[in-house]
Design goal:
The chain is an all-alpha fold. Helices cover 65% and strands 0% of the residues.
Length: 155
């Protein structure tokens, strides 16, 4: 279990909690790509990041998918490494979280603002993505503030 591994490597239970929160955040980001960020409206289908209406629009999935993959790598570093790498991974989780929040705020804001007479409903995907980013940010903060993250001792 991550808690046992983290404690065996000089960490505290808070490190395992932060890693778990961040892992849930990474899963939420992938879920946000599946769930529509724009609801169906006026004969138009609901759009999600993985189903944006054309194959070329799939490139918009690169950022959230890469973020989720990098977050999983950072979670593994947090769970399995010693102090200095763990602190760097926690900072990475916080940065990825902030970037994810801003990315999905863009999706929600675009739909909420509408475009003239075209005003589809905001889909849950954007909100799930924001929550995923918040979880990455919180998970990184929990790790950074936990005993066993500082880099004063040898690795």
């Amino acid at each position: 279990p991550p808690a046992a591994v983290s404690q065996a490597r000089g960490g505290s239970p808070g490190i395992a909690v932060g890693a778990a929160i961040s892992a849930v955040g990474a899963a939420a980001i992938i879920a946000a790509c599946v769930v529509p960020w724009e609801g169906a409206y006026g004969g138009s289908p609901a759009y999600s990041i993985f189903n944006a209406g054309s194959t070329s629009a799939l490139w918009y999935a690169a950022l959230p998918v890469a973020t989720a993959v990098l977050a999983v790598v950072a979670v593994l570093v947090v769970a399995l490494s010693r102090r200095a790498p763990r602190a760097v991974a926690a900072g990475t989780l916080m940065g990825l979280g902030l970037a994810t929040i801003l990315n999905f705020v863009g999706y929600v804001g675009t739909v909420a603002a509408g475009d003239g007479t075209y005003k589809p409903p905001v889909g849950a995907g954007g909100l799930i993505g924001i929550i995923g980013g918040v979880l990455l940010l919180i998970g990184g903060l929990v790790v950074v503030t936990s005993r066993g993250t500082g880099s004063r001792t040898a690795m």
